[in-house]
Amino acid sequence: MSLTAALRDLNKLNAFVRVAERRSFTKAAADLRTTPSVVSKHMKELEDALGFSLLNRSTHGIVLTDAGEGLFQNCLQMLAKLDDYVVGTRNLQTGPYGTLRVQAASDYARCVLTPLILEFAKRHPSLRVHLSVVTGDSNSVEDGFDVIIAGKKPSLPGLVDQDLGEVQHVVCASPAYFLRFGRPKEPQDLREHNCLANLYSGPKDWSFQTASRQLLVGVKGALSSNSSAVLIQMALQGYGIIRVPRYAVKAELADKTLKAIFERVTLSPERMYAYFSKAKHLPAKTSDFVHFLQASIAAR
Questions:
Q1: Quick one: pLDDT at residue 78?
Q2: Is there a single domain that holds both residue 155 and residue 281?
Q3: What tens digit of pLDDT does each residue of 39-56 get?
Q4: What is the distance between the alpha carbons of residues 210 and 194, in angstroms, rounded to a whole number?
């Protein structure tokens, strides 16, 4: 078998890539739905045809030789180019397809994403959409999601982001709370009030932007939560003052069960981003969804 023929044996190259990734014949065989002996046979035949060693076997597992590492990196580049071609061609011919997996914080998912995802799903009836939510300010993510909506970059490699715009916050409380404890006139007055926040792992300061400077006000309170929905329920019961995204209390502000304060003082805004894999050709389900989100949120 010539060197060219050896490198055209996709079965053996695929087995080699799996072994290089998993550093184990057994794990590679499980991925390929075959046996370790078949994988080992493929590796021996590939090495014999190439004329040099690709792997070193030891009691600690599989270690790539320098030549093996070089072949592995070239294989990854070839696979990436092939994947780009297949995805790009399929996008042109079929548009969004398969299952779109989205992850977002629960409050943002409930108040902002859900109606947008319903609209996106109507436009693409053949596409399946799965929305996974994480609680509160958690930055915990799992690999395998097509789009992650978050304020901070997830700890996953190879991600790029698309800015979805500012998330405006509001400081508010129930009329009953103000009647009992008084209404703060300046942000500094919050130090004397029961402020409901994520005081366990969240910021201990609320940030405001005056005409001349940024103002950080230290807050404290007897109750706290990592969920805006829980904080809102506490505030509705008259237990304290909250600082939450405005979208989360839109209805409560409209029916005046919660009243905003410091409306003339700008709260330092936060931003939300869509994170997704860096690739030359994104699947249409991902690129179309991100563009749809950006346009829909900007039009609100």
A1: 78
A2: yes
A3: 889 888 888 888 888 888
A4: 23
Whether pTM > 0.70 for this model: the answer is no
Contacts of residues 280-284 at CB distance under 8 Å and 24 or more positions apart, as own/partner, are: 280/84, 280/88, 281/84, 281/85, 281/87, 281/88, 281/91, 282/87, 283/87, 283/90, 283/91, 283/96, 283/97, 283/98, 283/146, 284/90, 284/91, 284/94, 284/95, 284/96, 284/97
> Which positions ≥6 away from 237 have C-beta within 8 Å?
174
Q: For residue 145, which amino acid is it?
A: F
In sequence order, what are the residues at sequence separation of 6 or more whose Cβ sits closer than 8 angstroms to the Cβ of residue 15? 28, 32, 39, 42, 43, 46
**210 plus 138 within the same structural domain:** no
SS3 61: strand
Residue 261 sits in a domain whose CATH number is 3.40.190.290
Three-class SS state of 231: helix
Buried b / exposed e along 162-174 (16+ C-beta atoms within 10 A): eebeebebbbbbb
User: Is the domain of 290 the same as that of 149?
Assistant: yes
The position carrying tokens 């400081």 is: 171
The answer, yes or no, to whether residue 8 has pLDDT greater than 50, is yes
Is 177 found in the same domain as 149?
A: no
What's the total number of domains in the chain? Answer: 3
Contact 214, 207 (CB under 8 A): yes
Q: Which amino acid, one-letter code, is at 7?
A: L
Residues 22 and 102 in one domain: no
What confidence tens digit (pLDDT) does each residue in 245-286 have? Answer: 999 999 999 999 999 999 887 787 789 999 998 876 678 889
Supply the range of the domain harboring residue 193: 169-268
φ, ψ dihedrals at 106, nearest 5°: -60, -45
Distance CA 96, CA 12 (A): 32
**Of the candidates 72, 93, 114, which is a domain's last residue?**
93
User: Position 178: which residue type?
Assistant: F
Q: Are 253 and 238 in contact (CB under 8 A)?
A: no
Do 184 and 261 lie in one domain? The reply is yes
Tokens of 21: 């990734």
